[in-house]
């Protein structure tokens, strides 16, 4: 029986300055970007598949959206 990986992985999702979105794993070693949220979800699935063996991959991907706003005082 092999080692079991985390049950979920958390990504922080932010607007990309050049358009689209950037997602960074909370522990920082996975970063991906895409033009739309739908594309970003697909990119995150691919990015999560790389560092984990199939039996160790997280079952869930949790997103935390961060939106910055700047306005005149």
3D architecture notes:
This protein is α+β, with helices and mostly antiparallel strands and 73 residues long. The protein has one domain (8-66): 2-Layer Sandwich (TTHA1013/TTHA0281-like). The protein has 1 helix and 4 strands. The protein has one helix at 37-49; strands spanning 8-15, 21-25, 31-34, 60-66. It has a 4-stranded mixed sheet, covered by helices on one side. The longest helix is centred in the middle third of the chain and has 13 residues, at 37-49.
Can you tell me the CATH architecture?
Answer: 2-Layer Sandwich
Determine the number of helices (DSSP H or I, runs of at least 4 residues): 1
Q: Distance between the terminal alpha carbons, to the nearest Å? A: 60 Å
Under CATH, the topology is which? TTHA1013/TTHA0281-like
What does the largest sheet look like? 4 strands, mixed
What portion of residues is helical?
Answer: 10-25%
**Average of the residue pLDDT scores:** 88
Task: Please give the CATH class.
Answer: Alpha Beta
**Beta-strand share of residues:** 25-35%
Order of helices and strands: EEEHE
List the helices and strands and how they pair.
Blueprint (H helix, E strand, L loop, with lengths): L7 E8 L5 E5 L5 E4 L2 H13 L10 E7 L7
Parallel strand pairs: 1-4
Antiparallel strand pairs: 1-2, 2-3
Provide a compact summary of the structure.
This protein is α+β, with helices and mostly antiparallel strands and 73 residues long. The protein has a single domain, classed as TTHA1013/TTHA0281-like. The protein has one helix at 37-49, and strands at 8-15, 21-25, 31-34, 60-66.
